[in-house]
Write a structure and sequence with these properties.
With 239 residues, the protein is mainly alpha-helical. It is built from 15 helices and no strands. Helix 11 runs antiparallel to helix 12. The longest helix has 17 residues.
């Protein structure tokens, strides 16, 4: 029997039926929502983390990947948390490589913003940091909402290392994206760059802020002083 069945049974101990409707609404699972058709069992994230920490050492990467294929959202998120734990808690590069490869092979199941955000900065980010990064550019140009968010969030690890180049390049690819979940992701990463190097963010925004979606710009300048923020919103900023 797949060890993932033991994880599922453990998660069932934490089900709160009152959370099913709340989570389903929050993650837009209704018709035409970005999470249309996703299924929730009603387990909150702290309890999912509790289960993941209890199981990640003993479960194989293959079984973790099998759990990631579940139609139940909490199963997928718990699987990703276990992948992150396996990746981050080992110094064995072969294990890191296996986790990364399982993650990318099953990327189609990383199909909501929380699933992306809990995993990409902690798996694909650190793995690709000192390697060729062609894949994230392929993802950025894929037309797939979740792969595009993976591409942007992968750069969060690079940003933390003060490596901004690819974050800016992917932001350029996604600057005209129609979906607000990408607007928020790009603006968030630009803000993170600004938290570390304000001038680098200002230089980037100076020639682009006029064509940015409003949500993307608001996220990017959220931490700016009020007069500076207002100059961007009014379209009067001059570098």
């Amino acid at each position: 029997m797949c060890d993932c069945e033991s994880v599922k049974k453990e998660l069932e101990k934490y089900v709160r039926s009152d959370k099913i409707a709340v989570l389903s609404g929050f993650f837009k699972t209704g018709k035409a929502g970005y999470g249309e058709g996703d299924l929730f069992m009603g387990v909150v994230v702290p309890d999912q983390r509790r289960v993941a920490k209890a199981f990640y050492r003993g479960i194989s990467i293959a079984d973790t990947a099998e759990l990631l294929k579940s139609p139940v959202h909490e199963h997928r998120l718990t699987a990703l948390i276990m992948m992150v734990e396996k990746f981050s808690k080992t110094r064995d590069e072969s294990v890191k490589k296996s986790v990364y490869e399982a993650y990318i092979k099953n990327i189609e199941y990383v199909n909501n913003w929380d699933l992306v955000d809990v995993s990409a900065p902690h798996i694909s980010g650190p793995y690709l940091y000192d390697k060729p990064r062609r894949l994230i550019f392929t993802f950025a140009r894929s037309g797939n909402l979740w792969k595009q968010r993976v591409a942007m969030l992968t750069t969060f690890y690079f940003i933390r290392k003060l490596d901004f180049e690819d974050a800016f390049k992917i932001a350029d690819i996604l600057i005209d994206h129609p979906h607000d979940l990408i607007h928020k992701a790009v603006g968030w990463m630009l803000r993170e760059i600004g938290n570390r190097d304000r001038q680098a963010e200002l230089d980037y925004l100076a020639t682009r802020y006029g064509k940015m979606p409003r949500t993307m710009l608001r996220y990017a300048i959220e931490k700016f002083e009020e007069p500076l923020r207002k100059s961007f919103l009014a379209g009067t900023y001059k570098n």
